[in-house]
User: What shape does this take?
Amino acid sequence: VPSLGATYGRGAATMALWDIANADCVVVMGSNMDDPRFTRTSALADIHAPIRAGSDIAFLGGLIRYVIENDLWFREFALAYTNLDHLIEDAYEDPEVLDGLFSGFDPDTGAYESKSWQYKAKAYTAPVGEERAQKAAVEGDNAEPMSKGPPERDPTLQHPNCVFQILKRHYARYTPEMVEQATGCPKETFLKVAEIYAAASGRERTTTLCYAVGWTHHSVGVQIIRAGALLQGLMGNIGRPGGGVMALRGHVSIQGSTDIPTLYNMLPGYLNQPSALKDHATLERFLDTETPATGWWHNTPKYVVSLLKAWYGDAATDANAFGYAWLPKLVSDVSMEPMTLSMADGVVKGQFLLGQNPVVGAANSEMVERGMGKLEWLVVRDFAMTESGEFWKTGRRVQTGEIAPGEIGTEVFFLPAAMAGEKEGTVTNTSRMVQWHDHVCEAAGDSRSDLWFIYHLGRRLKAMYAGSDDPADAAIQALTWDYPVKGERQEPSAEAVLKEIKGYTVTDGKHVAKFQDLKDDGSTACGCWIYSGIFPEKGRNLARARKPDAPDGPGSHAGWAWAWPANRRTMYNRASADPEGEPWSERKKMIWWDEDQGRWTGDDVPDFLPDKRPDYRPDWSKNPKGMDALAGSDPFIMEADGRCAIFAPAGLKDGPLPTYYEPVESPVKNPFYGQQSNPTAKRYPRPGNELNPPQDPRFPHVLTTYRLTELHCAGIPTRIMPHTAELQPEAFVEISPELAEEIGVQNLDWTVLSTLRNEIEVKALVTERMRPFAVNGKTVHQIGMPWVFGWKGYASGASVNALLAISGDANTSINTTKALTCAIRAGRLAPNLRLKGDAA
Amino acid sequence: MTFDPVEPAHVAPQSLGSDDSAEPWQARVRESLDRAAAGRPMLDGGALTEAMEVLCRRRDALRRAGADARRPLAAVNALISLVHAVHYPIGSTPWALLDQARGALGDLHPSQP
Assistant: This one.
């Protein structure tokens, strides 16, 4: 979310999955092609470019340098639609100068002060993320709001502090030779990729860039994605047919889980969660700090007030600031990793696990178990009993004799969950497409839908707190919780929930047809503004729509389900036309300006004001706000300047440009800078969660983890099913023949993997899919292990996540799972340390 | 100019004593917070963990005491929030909140439950 959001304005895949067919080249990284291993996807590719896990920014930085040095970037596109010509503050200093750090780093706080990254004398605010609230901080003595005029520019790109020159200097050292040195990918292979990618980008051609969690789960995960995103902007591969960034989400409705978030720091629709540490004490002050002067986010108050009306109903009035005081205010990072550690510290007393199995799926399994063992209660809802549900009985700590079940006081409740066909509702897929699914049959026994569980839990909580006079309980008392239920099981109506999400007018309950109709005066309610329009009128649930285009149709399939925002399939599609509104080429046309109609038209819903002329220019003498401050040739409407942010002046915690750092655990020295690893990465050193020091000879190998096609996520739904379990019946670790020979093992021999956190035993799969890399002058072996195994079900084996440390990206706190270090030896663990699975 | 935030050798958790320790709980929290402050700019997670464990035990005792303990419970909860904010910052380490926590601790009377 932060990387795509900071670059383009929204944190989501920019295109539809089927639009990949329109691409002239598809680059897949961090998802099975440009991958450490040779995978089934690699087998279908024209080029497989193996890289060392965690070295992606070196590879992408090399591509950026290649297209700049060879003048292969899409000049007309990038000059018109990105911030390449914007000037940055004089105080900005690059890692080129500071040996791997940006200006503004404060060793005392371990964080950056980003003022020197700003546009010169301007107060630019980022479109997403916690840092949007820095508006007040950047509007200082010498900085004026964006509504006072555009950022200073140099269209000749010669000014030393224009983004282009900074970019050019920043990536100058990312030569093909350095790419090879850092990634281990042969220079010739890299150059082949660069040539093909550049040739498949421009006016007549486009390239799709696909990624998945192989990019996300790093200490620099956000910056890896940023590197890909800015490269696509530079090449004109955004908002155009076959041109975009496809964020391949890990499984069903991951996109939906950030739209209507399970994230601790966001409210629905990517609105920031209020913070006690910012100027958020009142609704007025919150809106003032959170509302940018220019761009679409200037509408923020409409979305916040409508959300409060949806949540608190009649209790939300103008007099009480629509119940704003009831919203929790953040003080700390309460994402999953700190929460796990806080459980171990006794801070957290209870936990709900809904379709999640962290004892297998989360980093540092033993720390997870330790935390669970400190809880008063744990609720597990899943299709079948999980390792997490039985941590107290068969967990790692119990099996190895560290603790006895009688010493664990946690009360565990296991509640069986209904499966997809046993409940109605929607899923939001990787293309932002919301699709309805019907209830087909009743769930067996006591199994219930998640909606049923949450609704009835909330109903009971409201009843419990109904008579309370404690102000802390007022939020629950005020919450609207009036969804109709049906049937003997009292199943809530998912469609009623969707109606609340899409919005309605308060006085008559009529559907809000689109988010443009939402108000900030309390007259509309809307649970998630970006979903407004999915249910435009009574009886028209567009998530149910199932009308694909005919083969000779436009190809946007606008009649199949519904995609946020406003059923646009390709976001930023204003960029598919040139500044005058004409398609860049006939072959790559998508939307264009129709002078006769005075509107944008074409094959997709325009991601732009439909009647805003291409030649519209803001009248800066009038101090324009919102969309009035963006020109008719500014396609990135969520950005305060309407431009793709090649350089991100705000919004990210670890720098305005992606920079190469070694992973927090690495067997080699950073070949680019003196700064070894991301200085802002989240580290939580404590007994049981120590990091392997860089270049520690005890842990000489790179370890990467991944899923298997046959076993889903943490495994339980597929490990308990014989027909999927038999496809991957046992855990294994993949090693190269060279490493196998070095440690003296053959295929299917037992090995022991170790880190400072733990040791596991697992059988070796000796395969040429894995290969040693020549990195920075030394041979580095890479080891790969699927993380989908545990001790329950027919397919069992060691959980590799027991080896991992809890650490995180500075922007998202997402854990590092793809690049760490380990040792491997032949043999087995002592008998008392071997875990016994169900299959045994 | 480089900065390597790898933590120095971790200080092994000291014995925290039981809830009925003769030493007031405020003193034990203060000692841990002082140690965390002295370690600046390194974030001494071990010291903060120790402080948090004592605070949480105190919180749990007050919870069991029921409605009569509402005010001291609110004070301890506020302290927990401050320490948590320093231990797990959203962005930069808010050292001022550590000072605030130490100050708030000083405001509590040692005899406060």
